[in-house]
Write a structure and sequence with these properties.
tt1808, chain A; alpha+beta; rod-shaped
């Protein structure tokens, strides 16, 4: 009887790509702050664009070899979505960094100027900027390189400031143009790296500055809205006061009309009373006249009776006289 033996394939051990190389994030607080400022500013500038902006993140460029990595201070990858990553693996994302900015220090000067420059050129990083915030380690505090067709870095020609309008004025410091970012990179009077739009000359705010500006604008809008509400409330109050004044005038007018109507009514009542008195007086006069007339008629009747009686007496007397004679 044959015995079948199943052989399980050996599991390939999954390679581990560390999230840290054990090196300090930055040499000084200044280098760390400037690194994060550049990252946050470019994130704000490229918001709404399909681009990934990060920094101090391990970028692995050779699949299967966890030792092949680098950690740029700030880098931009176009065509890759912005989301949180623990590491960046070029073969998984489909493309490597397009722009890199390194904040140079004493411990990274050689690596930034030689080793990383060779690696970045080999990986096709199109624009490479080195920034020395203390002006101690580079020939000048800001240098820019652009990759040519032969994958060799050529220095980017600095743009003299007096040819660049900046925020309503003119800049006195040289700057470098990043064609990919659409920005001028230049140092302000304090030697801090700033970014300016090539189309408008406006300085790009960092995420925190932009948020502060949005809050300031919201506060101004709220203040304007409150002022507008107060203005409308004042107008409504004035309108209500005007309505009350008109209502008071109408009420006073109505009261005056009522007073005049009462006076007219009282006058009419007085006229009626006088008319009634005159009527009563006339009736009394008529009554008295009737009485006088009746009295006169009675007097005339009595006079007529007396006259008749006198005539009769004279006739009787005459008869009697004639009888005796």
């Amino acid at each position: 009887m044959a015995v079948t033996i199943q052989v399980r394939p050996k599991k390939t051990k999954e390679l581990f790509y560390p999230e840290s190389d054990g090196k300090p994030m930055a040499e000084t607080d200044l280098h760390r702050d400037l690194m994060f400022e550049a990252i946050h500013t470019l994130q704000e500038h490229l918001a709404g664009t399909k681009a990934y902006v990060s920094g101090n993140l391990l970028v692995y460029y050779e699949e299967g070899n966890p030792r092949r990595s680098f950690a740029p201070d700030c880098f931009v990858v176009f065509g890759v979505e912005q989301r949180r990553r623990r590491i960046y693996q070029i073969w998984k994302e489909g493309r490597g960094p397009d722009v890199v900015i390194e904040v140079t220090s004493s411990s990274t000067r050689r690596e930034d100027m030689v080793d990383k420059m060779e690696l970045y050129a080999r990986l096709g990083v199109q624009e490479y900027f080195l920034y020395d915030p203390t002006s101690d380690y580079l020939p000048q505090p800001l240098i820019g390189y652009r990759l040519n067709n032969e994958r060799v870095y050529q220095p980017i020609e600095s743009v003299v400031a007096d040819t660049l309008p900046m925020n309503g004025g003119r800049s006195a410091a040289p700057s470098f143009i990043s064609r990919l970012l659409g920005l001028h990179l230049r140092l302000d009077k304090d030697g801090i790296l700033q970014f300016y739009r090539t189309d408008t000359g406006e300085r790009v705010l960092s995420k925190f500055e932009a948020e502060a500006e949005r809050r300031r604008q919201q506060a101004l809008a709220a203040q304007h809205h409150a002022a507008e509400e107060r203005r409308r409330a004042d107008e409504e109050q004035q309108k209500a006061a005007e309505e009350r004044r008109r209502a008071d005038e109408e009420q006073q007018k109505a009261a005056e009309e009522r007073r005049r109507a009462d006076e007219e009514q009282q006058k009419a009542a007085e006229e009626r009373r006088r008319a009634d008195e005159e009527q009563q007086k006339a009736a009394e006069e008529r009554r008295r006249a009737d009485e006088e007339q009746q009295k006169a008629a009675e007097e005339r009747r009595r006079a007529d009776e007396m006259e008749t009686e006198m005539i009769q007496l004279r006739a009787e007397l005459k008869r009697l006289q004639n009888t005796h004679t």
